[in-house]
Amino acid sequence: MKVCIIGSGGREYAIATQLLADNPEISLDAIPGNDAMTFATIHPEIAATDIPAIVAFCVENGIEFCVVAPDDPLVLGLVDALEDAGIACFGPRKSGAMLEGSKRFAKEFMVKHGIPTAAYAEFTDVELARDYVRKAAFPLVIKADGLALGKGVVIVQDLTQAEAVLENFMVDLKFGTSSAAVIIEEFLSGPEISVLAFCDGKTIKPMISSMDHKKIYDGDEGPNTGGMGCVAPNPVFTKEVAAEFERNIMQPTLAGLIADGLDFRGCLYFGLMLTDKGLQVIEYNARFGDPETQVVLPLLSSNLLDIFLATSAGRLAEAEVEFSARHAACVVMACEGYPENPIKGNVISYDSEVAPFLVFAGVKRNHNGELESSSGRVLNVLGFGESLSQAIDSAYQHVSQVSFAHNHYRTDIGTKAREIEAHHDL
Ligand SMILES: Nc1ncnc2c1ncn2[C@@H]1O[C@H](COP(=O)(O)OP(=O)(O)OP(=O)(O)O)[C@@H](O)[C@H]1O
Ligand SMILES: [Mg+2]
What we know:
Blueprint: E1 2-7, H1 10-22, E2 27-32, E3 41-42, H2 51-60, E4 65-68, H3 71-76, H4 78-84, E5 88-90, H5 94-101, H6 103-112, E6 120-123, H7 126-135, E7 140-144, E8 153-156, H8 159-171, E9 182-186, E10 192-200, E11 204-212, E12 215-217, E13 221-224, E14 229-232, H9 239-259, E15 265-275, E16 278-285, H10 292-296, H11 304-313, E17 327-335, E18 349-350, E19 358-360, E20 363-365, E21 371-373, E22 377-385, H12 388-399, E23 402-403, E24 407-408, H13 415-425
Parallel strand pairs: 1-2, 1-4, 2-3, 4-5
Antiparallel strand pairs: 6-9, 7-8, 7-9, 10-11, 10-15, 11-14, 12-13, 14-17, 15-16, 17-22, 17-24, 18-23, 19-22, 20-21
Helix pairs in contact: 5-6, 7-8
The structure holds adenosine-5'-triphosphate (ATP) and magnesium ion.
């Protein structure tokens, strides 16, 4: 079977290696892919958002199945265009991807279908938004409506900050049309949980939970990033919390998708927070998370390609989705200076025995054939074990076997999870 994956990061590398491990007979193209993907034919000349070029490539090359992993091509309607050209896909059509592509759309969906989420107001008029924050209590959360590379959410502590963010988003259009509209949300607190789920529009099957670490520095300090590390499963997601999730969030979401005719076929990502008012939805994403995918998929014991094909064809009810009882940890090695000014272009070296635990993302091959750091998040280092502690220790052991100049990684991935787990054991 000829399969094509869209994207170039660690998430796509992890999906690709998992597909090939279970199905060595498939041939794989990656658009654009990255230079470490030696197992695929990469196409750096085609952008992940160039819909006509991707459709033309897939048609001309007899691609039978396409996995669309990143948010922007999904929101631009790549799956609609590919399916209209007769190519089956894993990933929602534009109508379903709006759950990620517009936070207003997602909030309206949640309110309509009774799904617990922070109270909010939405604004397209900056004057009305200013009036609202002048009368509000702080902290507040201001979110750009559209996609903003994970940087469109700001927690503001006072009126001065709130007015500055509104100016920046709605008047200066920091994220273009994505921030022309905003939502202003009640501030919630509590531990966060990511749950990915396969959904074919009629059936939904959750994967194991995970815990992301979004801040750049240890102790959750500094600015938000795309994600600096992950552990799975997430110890906050106990059996009781999982039951609450299924009852109050997952099933009502599926019922809402069906009622609204969204026919969502792909990976639905639930960003959750366990607050003192119970589990709340912070956000939906319409795709696999990065780096959640890197810890969740290796624990999947079922065949990923079979699940993708079943999801695409609306046969998910028949597909086996089973996970092992092991634990996984992922430490993201980034460039020093990420997210603002990453220092790139340094050669990466590692012990050969650690290669199976490395997932490459922001890398380029130089003229000597060596891999160099080429964008913010460079590679992900994995560890596995029978316990959370074993997985974390193993991941850091592997990190010590990788080096490149001007790297930065967090040294406390999983620390909070370990503390929560220890607390459960008391
Ligand atoms: N109402 C809230 N109260 C407190 N913190 C919040 C709230 N909403 C969002 N956050 C924090 O901001 C982070 C990012 O928010 P959100 O997930 O909505 O943005 P995003 O840019 O779509 O993220 P991603 O890049 O993961 O898709 C959350 O993980 C959470 O830590
Ligand atoms: Mg999001």
